[in-house]
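Researcher: Can you fold this with 9WO in place?
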Amino acid sequence: MRIDIITLFPSMFKGPFEESIIKRAQQKGIVEIHLHNLRDFTTDRHRTVDDAPFGGGAGMVMKVEPIYRALNHIKKELKKEGKVILLSPQGRKLTQELVAELKEENSLILICGRYEGVDERVREHLIDKEISIGDYVLSGGELPAMVLVDALVRLLPGAVGNERSVRENSFYRGLLDYPQYTRPAEFMGWKVPEVLRSGDHQKIEEWRRIQMLKRTLQRRADLLEKAKLTPEERKYLEEIKKGKIKNL
Ligand code: 9WO
């Protein structure tokens, strides 16, 4: 997959993209990430990327022309059309489901906003999707773009060992993780649940399933409405709700 990112701050991406999984995925050729400085697509002497809003008001708005020129430049480099995505608080909420949809694309072009926002004509004419990572005010779309790339790269074949599949699968199905422990078995008198040290893999599997359901019910009951549960899990969930299962 090829990902092009249009930003006023390309160096913000250096740290996160040059470590760990994203770094390795690039080295392996699983993902090709190209950063583009929006300022390089201006034509005036002052390299202007923003201007005052029509109609007045405080703050500045990102101009449409440099974004248009950046997109044209990138599209010439691409063999196939790329999906153009604006990171914005007004977009569709990023979920694991949406990430899984995006991983099917050959090429994505991400636009990071700054200032008070972008000229509406960018939305009207230049983009295919608008994505938000959540409802909070940020300074720009760069961190959201990094979040999207991180979530996406993990799903590309070969980017992560297959060890991830079971647990991320549980998240994908709409459930929270089960509790995890590692050595030592006792620290400061705090013990690891006996069942995990029993070596009984069937019991352990059942315990984890119940923990996932209990946690999701207690902390994120909203997830259960959409969760894909097996008939057995539905039965467990009913028993948990009735208070029949006490093992948390
Ligand atoms: C400004 C504002 C003013 C009044 C009421 C609500 C408001 N929200 C914002 C706002 O979010 N402004 C953006 C901040 C303007 C463009 C730069 N900023 C930004 C945030 N770019 N991208 C994001 C973002 C946030 C979450 N997910 C994806 C992108």
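Model: Folded with 9WO in place. Residues 41 and 69 are 6 Å apart (CA to CA).
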